[in-house]
Amino acid sequence: MGAPGRSAPPTLALVNVSKSFGAVRALQDVALELHAGEVHALAGENGAGKSTVVKTFAGVHRPDAGEVRVDGEPVAFHGPADAQAAGVAVIYQEPTLFPDLSVAENIFMGRQPRGTLGRIDRRAMHAATAELFRRLGVALDPQQPARGLSIADQQVVEIAKAISRDARVLIMDEPTAALTGQEVDRLFAVTRTLAEAGCAVLFISHRLEEIFSLCHRVTTLRDGAYVATDRTADLTPDDLVRRMVGRDLDALYPKQDVAPGEVALKVSRLTREGAFTDVSFEVRRGEIVALAGLVGAGRSEVARAVFGVDRWDAGSVEVAGRPLPPGSPTAAMAAGLALVPEDRRQQGLVMDMSIERNMGLTQLRALRRETGRAGLISRKVERSRAADWGLRLQLKYSRLTDAVGVLSGGNQQKVVLAKWLATEPDVLIVDEPTRGIDVGTKAEVHRLLSELAARDIAVLMISSDMPEVLGMADRVLVMHEGRLTAEIPRAEATEESVLAAATGRAGTGRAA
Amino acid sequence: MTLLTQSPARPGSGGAGGGGRRLVELVLRARELSILGALVVLVVGTTIANPRFLSGQGVTDIFLNASILVLLAVGQSVVVVTRNIDLSVGSVVGLVAFTTGKFASGGDRNVVLVLVIGVLIGLTCGLVNGLLVSFCRVPSLVVTLGTLYVIQGLDYRIAQGDQISASELPASVLSLGNDGVLGIPYLPIITVVVMLAVGYYLRSYSSGREFYAIGSSPEAAMLAGVPIRRRILTAYLVSGALAGLAGVLWLARFGTVVADAAHGWELTVVAAVVVGGVAITGGVGTVYGAALGALLLTTIGSVLVVLKVNSFWQEAITGVLLLLAISVDRLLALRVTRALKQRSLESTVHHDVPADVAHDVRAEEGRDRA
User: Fold this and answer.
1) Torsion angle in degrees (nearest 10) through CA of A430, A432, A436, A442
2) Domains plus CATH for chain B?
3) N or C: which terminus of chain A has fewer CB atoms within 10 Å of its end residue's CB?
4) Domains recognised in chain A with CATH numbers
5) What is the pLDDT along chain A (512 residues), one digit of tens a residue?
6) DSSP calls for A410-462
7) CA-based nearest residue in chain A for residue B227
């Protein structure tokens, strides 16, 4: 793929766009040009303004100043419908589908093939959907409801939607955050095909290696301001990180060597029908143990069962030698367990509640005890604790009373972490702790986890991010189709050995 | 395709195909089939206890009585499918029945004119509800609870303790409520035609599907460019218009109308809709299910009268049915979600066979380049 020609005006462009939300300047004089046939990356830390750029292109936000241009002509998008009409298709980080409607209806909503009298021609719609899926090389049933699809499949549906619209511009906002290696490869192949067919692609990812392997050019934003646009061929990953954070990063994976202490969490032959089978492992104090595997291998399900969110059918869980009753998060918390869930929007935070309230949620009892006023909760203590944690985790916020929903993804994750760290757990289970988080915050989260381990906390980390698994974990447990297939010590853990176990090609590592 | 190919018991029917869809369809149909089953058991059981129950007049009465509730349930389900609710329908029926009665008794009015006026009054109420919910973004529960009282108050103010009696009404109006064609009364005919039309529109038209889209995920609907406000407004207009129509039918059927006619019906309507499988959280259900729910509740009422059971039991049984319906919904939803997750897990595992995917995509790339 050579560099695309520059003679034609860009298919879609931002020209000196600024946008504010209340007092927060989200974008300031940002310029961005997307050309046909080019895959363009947008890089920046969380809160740098990437999502605002996406939403401006998508017609959700309108710029306060500056212009959006299509084929060099200024346009005003009055809503998502206008942007779609201009050929802009957006695939969001968390796909938004209609769970109750069929996959085909999700793809064709509002522009179903019509038959006589303007009726929907269902047969044509299903055939067209099947054809799209065939082109994408996936085996999905057009008539199955979207409810229950994996995130990867939901994205496939979104991509099919974009293709069916003959989109001229495809914008992908962190599409790979929840995908496994295989799924990422599939996505990239499809993306390249689309670009070669003349589509302009904007690609956002926190994984630098993805930006370098897929994209021709990269535009960097920092704190809402335009930094630079470079050809990826002229850039090293270190250059890019420097542009994003404005400084050199310390090591991304600062796991300190700690001599593991006594067993803090012992899981024996744990089974939950339909989710996982016969899972046994231990986590010692001071240790970070990674639970790797493909999405859907049953890792999160194990974490949920251990923490008591779901019941288990057989086996046992012991914390510091004492067995936990099944299905009781209260007992798990009392025993010193904390779970930072995968899906922070739905499980980790109450989005409409303030930052301080969210942080206080896990400590209501403690807040009550401390104040000792007949079971009332002291707002003052709540606030001072929240401010304290905000400082310790370098949380970026304007007021503690702001709703958590207005924070950027990385900062939301910090609030979830604070909420659970405040319970002073002995065992911390984190599910995809850095999913959708920028490089700078990622390093902070890693440093934090490492510090916790150094303070004798046992950490069980579920992660799909291979460098994170290899860099942070003292031991790597690998799951495949609901079973633990390998336990690999740090020294022997390589990308190949972990991937082999995760895809069921057993062999490397000793079987658990 | 004619309207008649849409049989009420088979919504969402289609060709043979995918497993996930079949499962869901089975569940949806199971709801309608189980209501039909309950109806059959009810009717057979009662007929054994009292053979006169199934006499011609008895059945006609049930259908006459059910018609108005079914009409309201059809309108209500359009609103509920969009994740909203319309509690004002009972008041609208009362207002329309009284005002059109007043108008009709003022001279020998044409029945069509009476119907048009009734529907217009209903539309106006629907417009107010719809504007408040869709454009002012006030939660529908609050808006329609408010209009319930406002419209009721208006009705009382107009009535001032007066009542309409059948003897004052023109013959054409009374004939609408009591005569029919080929022995089938007008009321159920009107209701079935309306139900089929609305059901057909919701299923087969692009804009009809958007009602489901909005209820299923408002956010996704916004991003998909669905005109949310317009659709929600339309839903309230439909509900209002049908409530207006139901008001005139009420007048025609009963002749005698006092100001608090249909008082409290809004809750019966919502119960019928939910029993009929329209999810109160939106996005799921059909008008046919809602209609069957309304028919079931009406039949239970008649059965209790025939069996000389205290009318207290009717309300209790309605309540039990409602709870049953909601629990079954919840249980089935969990089951289906789990089954679908399982299925998608299996297919994901299948996707992860690396050679397969790589091959497919490469073949695809080749094809596209060519």
Assistant:
1) 60
2) 21-341 (1.10.3470)
3) N
4) 12-97+149-245 (3.40.50.300), 249-336+425-512 (3.40.50.300), 348-422 (no CATH)
5) 444 445 678 888 888 899 887 666 788 889 999 998 899 999 887 667 888 899 899 888 888 988 899 888 888 888 888 888 888 988 877 778 898 898 999 999 888 888 888 888 888 999 999 988 887 777 888 888 888 787 778 888 888 888 888 888 999 988 877 677 777 888 888 888 888 888 899 998 877 888 888 899 999 988 788 888 989 888 888 788 778 776 554 455 666 677 788 889 999 999 988 788 899 999 999 899 999 887 678 888 899 899 988 888 889 999 888 898 888 888 888 888 888 887 766 667 777 888 888 887 777 666 665 655 566 667 777 788 788 888 877 787 778 888 888 777 778 888 888 888 888 888 999 988 887 676 677 778 888 888 888 888 899 999 877 778 888 888 999 988 888 888 998 888 887 788 778 776 654 444 43
6) HHHHHHHHHHHHTT--SEEEEESTTTT--HHHHHHHHHHHHHHHHTT-EEEEE
7) A81
CB A265 within 8 A of CB A319: yes
Inter-chain residue contact B352 with A182, CB threshold 8 Å: yes
Cβ distance B20 to A143 less than 8 Å, yes or no, reads yes
* pLDDT, tens digit, 9 for 90 and up, residues A333-360: 888 888 888 776 666 777 788 888 888 7
Instruction: Find the distance separating the first CA and the last CA of chain B, reported in whole Å.
Output: 41
Residue B283 burial by CB count (10 A; 0-12/13-18/19+): exposed, middle or buried? buried
Minimal Cα distance from A79: which residue of B?
Answer: B225
Pairing of strands A337-340, A427-431: parallel
A273 CB-near residues (< 8 Å, 6+ apart)? A313
Q: Do B351 and A98 touch (CB under 8 A)?
A: no
Using an 8 Å CB-CB cutoff, list chain B residues near A148: 20, 336-337, 339-341, 343-344
A-chain CB neighbours of B339 within 8 Å are 148
Q: Minimal Cα–Cα distance from B152 to chain A, Å?
A: 36
* Contact assessment for residue A351 and residue A402, using Cβ atoms and an 8 Å cutoff: no
Q: Closest-CA residue in chain A for B345? A: A296
pLDDT at B199: 92
**Residues A145, B20: C-beta atoms closer than 8 Å:** yes
**Who among B212, B351, B368 is closest to A138 (CB)?**
B351
Contact A210, A446 (CB under 8 A): no
Compute the distance between CA of residue B36 and CA of residue B38 in angstroms, rounded to an integer: 5
Cα separation, A445 vs A390, whole angstroms: 13
H or E stretch at B178: helix B171-178
Interface A-B: count of C-beta contacts within 8 A: 164
Nearest Cα residue to A442 out of A479, A419, A471: A471
Pick the residue of A101, A135, A192 with the most B CBs within 10 A to test the interface with B by mutation: A101
Contact A109 B210 (CB under 8 A): yes
Q: What is the pLDDT of residues A119-155, one digit of tens each?
A: 888 889 999 999 888 877 778 888 888 887 877 788 8
Residue B122 Cα, gap to closest chain A Cα (Å) = 28
Nearest-angstrom CA–CA distance, A335 and B365: 54
Specify whether the CB–CB gap between B283 and B217 falls below 8 A: yes
Nearest partner of B352 among A380, A308, A480, judged by Cα: A480
Residue that the structure tokens 């990385």 belong to: A410
| Whether B360 contacts chain A with CB within 8 A | yes
CB A281 within 8 A of CB A498: no
- Chain A residues in contact with B2 by the CB 8 A cut-off are none
Q: Which residue of A has its CA nearest to B337?
A: A148
